[in-house]
Task: structure prediction
Amino acid sequence: MFTTDATVPDVKATGPVQRRLAEHGVKPGEHYLDSGYPSADLITTALERGIRMVTPVLLDHSAQAKAHTGFDKNAFAIDWKARQVRCPAGKRSAHWNPVKQHGADAIVITFSVLTCRPCLFRKQCTSSALGRRMLTLRPREPHEALVRARSEQKTETWKAKYALRAGVEGTINQALDITGMRRARYRGLPKVRLQHSFSATALNVIRLDAYWTGHDQHHTRSNRLKHLAYRLTA
Result:
């Protein structure tokens, strides 16, 4: 259980959660997450720790990728050693500029106007008023991790594996329905964190009770917490 302020985005919780699991000796070989938790850097860092993140990553949302007719980033060949990019027409980039964007390392690739303006494929490649193509890439390891993840999530094998996460969503819904943990009963993060811990404990007790008594939780909407409390006091 990892409780944060409501303003903290999910992606900021991924690293701390994985570190905490490792500290408690339960580091996962595969970590199933929804699309709010991954980033190229986090996927790379997790792999270095021996954790494979099974999670949908954001697709390329460039105009070329959305149109399905233009040249998206995958159409360009990257020579990391030479620090150059080759376009689909076989022309090489003019500039390779490492920068910081939103606090993260990135590389801005620029092609020369003299190369792009006379190109027969310019309309498929760029709509820039300057008439030249620019690309923004992550450094090599996170870039390749992102490309690999995007490719894998299109396969039926990956989709079948990710279907396991339905159990996680079911657990979250059960916690919301039974313990009412969507609403904080107290003010202050420490108290809300304690409430969540009690909710998780209650859910574990309810599931143990269902397992021991052979009760099928999938075919009832009754409040199991009330039923269990009645049995314990009877």
Notes: The chain has a mean pLDDT of 86. The first strand starts at residue 30 and ends at 32.
